From TrEMBL:
Its EC number is 2.7.4.9. It comes from the Bacteria. One of its GO terms (cellular component) is cytosol. Residues 126-316 form the Thymidylate kinase-like domain. One of its GO terms (biological process) is dTDP biosynthetic process. It catalyses: dTMP + ATP = dTDP + ADP. Keywords: ATP-binding, Kinase, Nucleotide biosynthesis, Nucleotide-binding, Transferase. CDD domains: TMPK, TRX_Fd_family. Belongs to the thymidylate kinase family. Phosphorylation of dTMP to form dTDP in both de novo and salvage pathways of dTTP synthesis. The gene is tmk. This is Thymidylate kinase.
Protein backbone atom coordinates (compact mmCIF):
# COMPACT_ATOMS: atom_id res chain seq x y z
CA UNK A 1 0.00 0.00 0.00
CA UNK A 2 1.39 3.38 -1.00
CA UNK A 3 1.21 6.39 1.32
CA UNK A 4 -0.87 9.42 0.43
CA UNK A 5 2.32 11.41 -0.23
CA UNK A 6 3.56 8.76 -2.66
CA UNK A 7 0.23 8.65 -4.46
CA UNK A 8 0.15 12.45 -4.74
CA UNK A 9 3.69 12.41 -6.16
CA UNK A 10 2.86 9.72 -8.74
CA UNK A 11 -0.23 11.64 -9.76
CA UNK A 12 1.50 14.99 -10.13
CA UNK A 13 4.25 13.36 -12.21
CA UNK A 14 1.63 11.75 -14.38
CA UNK A 15 -0.18 15.05 -14.82
CA UNK A 16 3.09 16.79 -15.69
CA UNK A 17 3.75 14.18 -18.35
CA UNK A 18 0.27 14.69 -19.79
CA UNK A 19 0.62 18.45 -19.63
CA UNK A 20 3.90 18.30 -21.49
CA UNK A 21 2.30 16.06 -24.08
CA UNK A 22 -0.46 18.62 -24.63
CA UNK A 23 1.81 21.53 -25.29
CA UNK A 24 4.82 20.13 -27.10
CA UNK A 25 5.21 19.72 -30.83
CA UNK A 26 2.72 20.15 -33.68
CA UNK A 27 1.95 16.46 -34.13
CA UNK A 28 -1.66 15.56 -34.64
CA UNK A 29 -3.29 14.31 -31.50
CA UNK A 30 -6.40 12.44 -30.57
CA UNK A 31 -8.55 14.96 -28.72
CA UNK A 32 -10.72 13.94 -25.82
CA UNK A 33 -13.32 16.46 -24.69
CA UNK A 34 -14.93 15.89 -21.35
CA UNK A 35 -17.96 17.78 -20.03
CA UNK A 36 -17.02 19.37 -16.71
CA UNK A 37 -20.10 21.50 -16.04
CA UNK A 38 -21.97 20.99 -12.78
CA UNK A 39 -24.06 18.23 -14.38
CA UNK A 40 -20.93 16.37 -15.46
CA UNK A 41 -19.17 16.78 -12.13
CA UNK A 42 -22.27 15.64 -10.25
CA UNK A 43 -22.38 12.52 -12.41
CA UNK A 44 -18.72 11.72 -11.67
CA UNK A 45 -16.86 13.40 -14.54
CA UNK A 46 -14.02 14.44 -12.26
CA UNK A 47 -13.33 10.82 -11.30
CA UNK A 48 -13.53 9.81 -14.96
CA UNK A 49 -11.08 12.54 -15.91
CA UNK A 50 -8.70 11.64 -13.09
CA UNK A 51 -8.68 7.99 -14.15
CA UNK A 52 -8.08 8.94 -17.78
CA UNK A 53 -5.18 11.24 -16.87
CA UNK A 54 -3.68 8.56 -14.67
CA UNK A 55 -3.84 5.99 -17.48
CA UNK A 56 -2.28 8.47 -19.89
CA UNK A 57 0.38 9.34 -17.34
CA UNK A 58 1.29 5.67 -16.87
CA UNK A 59 1.81 5.25 -20.61
CA UNK A 60 3.19 8.76 -21.17
CA UNK A 61 0.52 8.96 -23.85
CA UNK A 62 1.72 12.01 -25.79
CA UNK A 63 -0.69 11.41 -28.67
CA UNK A 64 -3.80 12.31 -26.66
CA UNK A 65 -4.90 15.80 -25.71
CA UNK A 66 -7.58 16.22 -23.07
CA UNK A 67 -9.80 19.29 -23.11
CA UNK A 68 -12.24 20.12 -20.37
CA UNK A 69 -15.42 21.69 -21.66
CA UNK A 70 -18.83 22.85 -20.41
CA UNK A 71 -22.18 21.12 -20.49
CA UNK A 72 -22.33 18.58 -23.32
CA UNK A 73 -26.04 19.18 -23.86
CA UNK A 74 -27.54 16.06 -22.35
CA UNK A 75 -27.17 16.19 -18.58
CA UNK A 76 -28.85 12.82 -18.00
CA UNK A 77 -26.12 11.03 -19.96
CA UNK A 78 -23.10 12.54 -18.16
CA UNK A 79 -20.24 11.92 -17.78
CA UNK A 80 -19.90 12.49 -21.52
CA UNK A 81 -16.67 12.23 -23.49
CA UNK A 82 -16.10 13.13 -27.11
CA UNK A 83 -13.17 11.67 -28.95
CA UNK A 84 -11.88 13.40 -32.07
CA UNK A 85 -9.69 10.87 -33.81
CA UNK A 86 -6.66 11.59 -35.99
CA UNK A 87 -8.91 12.03 -39.03
CA UNK A 88 -11.16 14.50 -37.26
CA UNK A 89 -14.02 12.03 -36.79
CA UNK A 90 -15.90 12.77 -33.59
CA UNK A 91 -17.40 9.99 -31.49
CA UNK A 92 -19.42 10.65 -28.41
CA UNK A 93 -19.44 8.36 -25.39
CA UNK A 94 -22.09 8.70 -22.73
CA UNK A 95 -22.25 7.63 -19.08
CA UNK A 96 -18.51 7.09 -18.99
CA UNK A 97 -17.62 6.05 -15.47
CA UNK A 98 -14.23 4.79 -14.30
CA UNK A 99 -14.66 1.30 -15.79
CA UNK A 100 -15.95 2.67 -19.07
CA UNK A 101 -13.08 5.14 -19.39
CA UNK A 102 -10.58 2.33 -18.80
CA UNK A 103 -12.19 0.30 -21.58
CA UNK A 104 -12.31 3.35 -23.85
CA UNK A 105 -8.66 4.05 -23.16
CA UNK A 106 -7.46 0.55 -23.94
CA UNK A 107 -9.86 -0.06 -26.87
CA UNK A 108 -9.72 3.28 -28.65
CA UNK A 109 -7.31 5.84 -27.29
CA UNK A 110 -4.14 4.00 -26.43
CA UNK A 111 -3.32 2.99 -29.99
CA UNK A 112 -3.44 5.95 -32.35
CA UNK A 113 -4.86 5.53 -35.83
CA UNK A 114 -7.59 3.15 -34.76
CA UNK A 115 -10.67 4.04 -36.75
CA UNK A 116 -13.60 5.39 -34.84
CA UNK A 117 -17.03 3.91 -35.45
CA UNK A 118 -18.63 7.41 -35.63
CA UNK A 119 -19.99 8.95 -38.80
CA UNK A 120 -18.03 11.60 -40.63
CA UNK A 121 -20.63 14.35 -40.37
CA UNK A 122 -20.49 16.85 -43.23
CA UNK A 123 -21.29 20.46 -42.34
CA UNK A 124 -22.50 23.11 -44.77
CA UNK A 125 -23.57 26.72 -44.23
CA UNK A 126 -25.90 28.66 -46.51
CA UNK A 127 -25.19 32.35 -46.78
CA UNK A 128 -26.76 35.24 -48.64
CA UNK A 129 -28.79 38.37 -48.27
CA UNK A 130 -32.40 38.56 -47.20
CA UNK A 131 -34.71 36.69 -49.55
CA UNK A 132 -31.93 34.77 -51.27
CA UNK A 133 -33.80 31.57 -50.46
CA UNK A 134 -31.75 30.06 -47.61
CA UNK A 135 -34.69 28.96 -45.48
CA UNK A 136 -36.64 27.59 -48.43
CA UNK A 137 -33.68 25.62 -49.80
CA UNK A 138 -32.69 24.22 -46.41
CA UNK A 139 -36.15 22.73 -45.95
CA UNK A 140 -36.03 21.23 -49.45
CA UNK A 141 -32.54 19.82 -48.86
CA UNK A 142 -33.53 18.25 -45.56
CA UNK A 143 -36.53 16.55 -47.16
CA UNK A 144 -34.45 15.38 -50.10
CA UNK A 145 -31.55 13.89 -48.15
CA UNK A 146 -33.77 12.38 -45.47
CA UNK A 147 -35.78 10.67 -48.20
CA UNK A 148 -32.47 9.14 -49.27
CA UNK A 149 -32.00 7.75 -45.76
CA UNK A 150 -29.51 10.27 -44.40
CA UNK A 151 -29.65 11.80 -40.92
CA UNK A 152 -29.87 15.55 -41.43
CA UNK A 153 -30.14 18.51 -39.08
CA UNK A 154 -30.92 22.09 -40.14
CA UNK A 155 -29.72 24.62 -37.66
CA UNK A 156 -30.07 28.35 -37.41
CA UNK A 157 -28.70 30.45 -34.62
CA UNK A 158 -29.99 30.75 -31.91
CA UNK A 159 -31.65 27.42 -32.60
CA UNK A 160 -33.75 26.96 -29.50
CA UNK A 161 -30.73 27.26 -27.22
CA UNK A 162 -32.07 29.44 -24.44
CA UNK A 163 -28.95 31.50 -23.74
CA UNK A 164 -28.50 32.15 -27.46
CA UNK A 165 -32.23 32.99 -27.76
CA UNK A 166 -31.87 35.63 -25.08
CA UNK A 167 -28.81 37.11 -26.75
CA UNK A 168 -30.64 37.27 -30.07
CA UNK A 169 -33.58 39.05 -28.42
CA UNK A 170 -31.16 41.75 -27.27
CA UNK A 171 -29.65 42.08 -30.74
CA UNK A 172 -32.93 42.26 -32.63
CA UNK A 173 -34.88 44.42 -30.19
CA UNK A 174 -36.07 47.43 -32.25
CA UNK A 175 -35.72 49.64 -29.18
CA UNK A 176 -31.98 49.03 -28.91
CA UNK A 177 -31.12 51.81 -31.35
CA UNK A 178 -28.05 52.80 -29.29
CA UNK A 179 -26.36 49.42 -29.75
CA UNK A 180 -22.66 49.79 -30.57
CA UNK A 181 -21.55 47.83 -33.62
CA UNK A 182 -18.84 45.93 -31.74
CA UNK A 183 -21.32 45.07 -29.01
CA UNK A 184 -23.51 43.63 -31.74
CA UNK A 185 -20.61 41.64 -33.21
CA UNK A 186 -19.69 40.29 -29.78
CA UNK A 187 -23.29 39.31 -29.09
CA UNK A 188 -23.56 37.46 -32.40
CA UNK A 189 -20.32 35.67 -31.63
CA UNK A 190 -21.50 34.78 -28.12
CA UNK A 191 -24.83 33.43 -29.36
CA UNK A 192 -22.98 31.51 -32.05
CA UNK A 193 -20.65 29.86 -29.57
CA UNK A 194 -23.46 28.80 -27.26
CA UNK A 195 -25.46 27.39 -30.14
CA UNK A 196 -22.44 25.63 -31.61
CA UNK A 197 -21.30 23.97 -28.40
CA UNK A 198 -24.75 23.07 -27.14
CA UNK A 199 -26.52 22.09 -30.32
CA UNK A 200 -24.10 21.34 -33.14
CA UNK A 201 -20.92 19.81 -31.74
CA UNK A 202 -22.83 17.07 -29.86
CA UNK A 203 -24.24 15.91 -33.21
CA UNK A 204 -20.91 15.57 -34.97
CA UNK A 205 -20.14 11.93 -35.46
CA UNK A 206 -23.82 11.00 -35.21
CA UNK A 207 -25.46 12.67 -38.22
CA UNK A 208 -24.63 12.59 -41.93
CA UNK A 209 -25.29 16.23 -42.62
CA UNK A 210 -25.62 19.43 -40.60
CA UNK A 211 -26.92 22.42 -42.57
CA UNK A 212 -26.43 25.90 -41.11
CA UNK A 213 -28.77 28.78 -41.96
CA UNK A 214 -26.04 31.47 -41.78
CA UNK A 215 -22.82 31.16 -39.78
CA UNK A 216 -19.54 33.04 -39.26
CA UNK A 217 -19.60 34.61 -42.75
CA UNK A 218 -22.82 36.48 -41.92
CA UNK A 219 -20.98 38.32 -39.17
CA UNK A 220 -17.95 38.91 -41.38
CA UNK A 221 -20.22 40.53 -43.99
CA UNK A 222 -22.85 42.31 -41.84
CA UNK A 223 -20.67 43.42 -38.93
CA UNK A 224 -17.28 43.35 -40.61
CA UNK A 225 -18.04 44.91 -43.98
CA UNK A 226 -21.42 46.63 -43.83
CA UNK A 227 -20.98 47.97 -40.28
CA UNK A 228 -17.33 48.64 -41.09
CA UNK A 229 -15.64 46.95 -38.13
CA UNK A 230 -13.34 45.18 -40.59
CA UNK A 231 -13.82 41.75 -42.13
CA UNK A 232 -10.58 40.34 -40.73
CA UNK A 233 -11.29 41.59 -37.22
CA UNK A 234 -14.74 40.03 -37.17
CA UNK A 235 -13.38 36.81 -38.61
CA UNK A 236 -10.78 36.68 -35.82
CA UNK A 237 -13.43 37.35 -33.19
CA UNK A 238 -15.43 34.46 -34.57
CA UNK A 239 -12.42 32.19 -34.67
CA UNK A 240 -12.16 32.74 -30.93
CA UNK A 241 -15.87 32.04 -30.51
CA UNK A 242 -15.87 28.85 -32.55
CA UNK A 243 -12.34 27.65 -31.76
CA UNK A 244 -11.69 27.61 -35.52
CA UNK A 245 -14.67 25.46 -36.35
CA UNK A 246 -15.80 26.17 -39.92
CA UNK A 247 -18.29 24.20 -42.03
CA UNK A 248 -16.80 21.88 -44.64
CA UNK A 249 -18.44 24.03 -47.30
CA UNK A 250 -20.22 27.37 -47.49
CA UNK A 251 -22.71 28.10 -50.25
CA UNK A 252 -23.34 31.74 -51.06
CA UNK A 253 -26.72 32.36 -52.70
CA UNK A 254 -26.33 35.42 -54.89
CA UNK A 255 -29.34 37.50 -55.80
CA UNK A 256 -29.93 41.17 -56.58
CA UNK A 257 -31.02 42.71 -53.25
CA UNK A 258 -34.01 44.39 -54.91
CA UNK A 259 -35.26 40.95 -55.98
CA UNK A 260 -34.50 39.44 -52.55
CA UNK A 261 -36.38 42.17 -50.70
CA UNK A 262 -39.31 41.92 -53.10
CA UNK A 263 -39.52 38.22 -52.25
CA UNK A 264 -39.37 38.93 -48.52
CA UNK A 265 -41.87 41.77 -48.36
CA UNK A 266 -44.23 39.82 -50.59
CA UNK A 267 -44.24 37.17 -47.89
CA UNK A 268 -46.54 38.69 -45.26
CA UNK A 269 -46.06 35.92 -42.69
CA UNK A 270 -42.42 36.85 -42.08
CA UNK A 271 -40.93 38.45 -39.04
CA UNK A 272 -39.77 42.00 -39.80
CA UNK A 273 -36.72 42.74 -37.73
CA UNK A 274 -34.55 45.78 -37.12
CA UNK A 275 -32.22 44.92 -39.96
CA UNK A 276 -35.03 44.35 -42.44
CA UNK A 277 -36.07 47.94 -41.82
CA UNK A 278 -32.71 49.43 -42.79
CA UNK A 279 -32.32 51.35 -46.04
CA UNK A 280 -32.03 49.44 -49.32
CA UNK A 281 -28.42 50.66 -49.57
CA UNK A 282 -27.61 48.40 -46.66
CA UNK A 283 -28.62 45.35 -48.68
CA UNK A 284 -26.54 46.48 -51.63
CA UNK A 285 -23.54 46.60 -49.29
CA UNK A 286 -24.40 43.14 -47.98
CA UNK A 287 -24.06 41.79 -51.49
CA UNK A 288 -20.76 43.66 -52.03
CA UNK A 289 -19.46 42.19 -48.76
CA UNK A 290 -20.33 38.65 -49.77
CA UNK A 291 -18.66 39.15 -53.14
CA UNK A 292 -15.45 40.34 -51.49
CA UNK A 293 -15.53 37.36 -49.13
CA UNK A 294 -16.11 35.05 -52.05
CA UNK A 295 -13.19 36.47 -54.02
CA UNK A 296 -10.89 36.01 -51.02
CA UNK A 297 -12.10 32.58 -49.91
CA UNK A 298 -13.02 30.76 -53.07
CA UNK A 299 -11.41 27.63 -51.58
CA UNK A 300 -14.24 27.22 -49.08
CA UNK A 301 -17.13 29.33 -50.41
CA UNK A 302 -19.08 28.40 -53.54
CA UNK A 303 -21.38 30.83 -55.31
CA UNK A 304 -24.77 29.79 -56.65
CA UNK A 305 -26.94 32.05 -58.80
CA UNK A 306 -30.08 32.34 -56.66
CA UNK A 307 -31.97 34.67 -59.00
CA UNK A 308 -33.34 31.66 -60.88
CA UNK A 309 -36.48 29.65 -60.02
CA UNK A 310 -36.11 27.81 -56.76
CA UNK A 311 -36.05 24.37 -58.44
CA UNK A 312 -32.98 25.32 -60.48
CA UNK A 313 -31.18 26.73 -57.44
CA UNK A 314 -32.06 23.62 -55.46
CA UNK A 315 -30.63 21.38 -58.18
CA UNK A 316 -27.26 23.16 -58.06
CA UNK A 317 -27.07 23.17 -54.28
CA UNK A 318 -28.08 19.50 -54.10
CA UNK A 319 -25.32 18.60 -56.57
CA UNK A 320 -22.74 20.46 -54.47
CA UNK A 321 -23.85 18.56 -51.38
CA UNK A 322 -23.79 15.26 -53.28
CA UNK A 323 -20.16 15.89 -54.19
CA UNK A 324 -19.30 16.79 -50.62
CA UNK A 325 -21.03 13.72 -49.23
CA UNK A 326 -19.14 11.50 -51.68
CA UNK A 327 -15.80 12.89 -50.53
CA UNK A 328 -13.92 10.81 -48.00
N1 LIG B 1 -35.53 31.16 -56.16
C1 LIG B 1 -36.63 31.79 -55.71
N2 LIG B 1 -37.44 32.45 -56.56
C2 LIG B 1 -38.53 33.10 -56.12
N3 LIG B 1 -38.92 33.15 -54.83
C3 LIG B 1 -38.14 32.51 -53.93
C4 LIG B 1 -36.96 31.81 -54.31
N4 LIG B 1 -36.39 31.28 -53.22
C5 LIG B 1 -37.17 31.64 -52.17
N5 LIG B 1 -38.23 32.38 -52.60
C6 LIG B 1 -39.30 32.99 -51.79
O1 LIG B 1 -38.73 34.16 -51.22
C7 LIG B 1 -39.15 34.35 -49.88
C8 LIG B 1 -37.92 34.42 -48.98
O2 LIG B 1 -37.21 33.17 -49.04
P1 LIG B 1 -36.41 32.58 -47.81
O3 LIG B 1 -36.11 31.17 -48.12
O4 LIG B 1 -37.15 32.87 -46.53
O5 LIG B 1 -35.09 33.48 -47.89
P2 LIG B 1 -33.95 33.76 -46.79
O6 LIG B 1 -34.07 32.70 -45.74
O7 LIG B 1 -32.68 33.67 -47.56
O8 LIG B 1 -34.22 35.16 -46.28
C9 LIG B 1 -40.07 33.19 -49.58
O9 LIG B 1 -41.39 33.60 -49.75
C10 LIG B 1 -39.71 32.13 -50.61
O10 LIG B 1 -40.81 31.34 -50.94
C1 LIG C 1 -26.11 35.36 -38.15
C2 LIG C 1 -26.05 36.84 -38.37
C3 LIG C 1 -27.13 37.50 -38.87
N1 LIG C 1 -27.07 38.84 -39.07
C4 LIG C 1 -28.25 39.53 -39.61
C5 LIG C 1 -28.65 39.11 -40.99
C6 LIG C 1 -30.12 39.40 -41.04
O1 LIG C 1 -30.31 40.70 -41.56
C7 LIG C 1 -30.55 39.41 -39.59
C8 LIG C 1 -31.52 38.34 -39.24
O2 LIG C 1 -31.14 37.17 -39.85
P1 LIG C 1 -32.23 36.17 -40.32
O3 LIG C 1 -33.43 36.25 -39.44
O4 LIG C 1 -31.53 34.89 -40.45
O5 LIG C 1 -32.63 36.81 -41.70
P2 LIG C 1 -32.76 36.08 -43.09
O6 LIG C 1 -33.99 35.25 -43.05
O7 LIG C 1 -32.81 37.16 -44.07
O8 LIG C 1 -31.54 35.26 -43.26
O9 LIG C 1 -29.36 39.24 -38.82
C9 LIG C 1 -25.94 39.57 -38.76
O10 LIG C 1 -25.90 40.79 -38.93
N2 LIG C 1 -24.87 38.92 -38.26
C10 LIG C 1 -24.86 37.58 -38.05
O11 LIG C 1 -23.85 37.03 -37.58
Amino acid sequence: MKSLDELTKIRSEALRAVDASNTSGNDKKIIVRIGMATCGITAGARQTLTRLLDLMGQDRAAHIKVLQTGCMGNCDMEPILEVVDLEGVVTRYERVGIQEVEKLYYDVLRTPGVKSKGKKTKTVSLEGGEGSGKTTLLAMLKDHFEARGLDVMITREPGGVRIAEKIREIILDVEHTEMDVRTEALLYAAARRQHLTQKVLPELGKLDLVLFDRFVDSSVVYQGYVREIGMDEVYELNRFATEDFLPDMTIYLDVDPAEGLKRVYGDSGREINRLDLEAAEFHVKVRQGYRILLSEHSERIVEVDASRPVEAVFEDVKNLLDNLLNRA
